[in-house]
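Pilot study result, target chain (92 residues):
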Amino acid sequence: MAEQFQVTCHKPDDGDRDRRIEGLGGPSGGGWYRDIDQLIAWIENGTYQFWTVDTAGNSVWIEVKERNRRKYLKTTSDGVEPNNLLALPHCP
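Predicted structure:
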């Protein structure tokens, strides 16, 4: 089973009109941050799983999606706006 990590912050890619995030971070091991391409690779090859808490307080998995041949991360559908990852605080 893949090791699991909580995500508590995001870094926006301010130059990206599609609002693709630059990376995610969390509290484990004294704090961590990884760029989006590394996170996508780990999720796709099953090395790690990532989760966060949505705006309603529920735990949700982070998954890889693709649109126009461009991969991005999102949480499992919960039908709640705003976007769960973009609603997280910015990583330092």
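One observation from the pilot: The chain has one domain: 3-75. A full batch analysis is planned for the follow-on phase.
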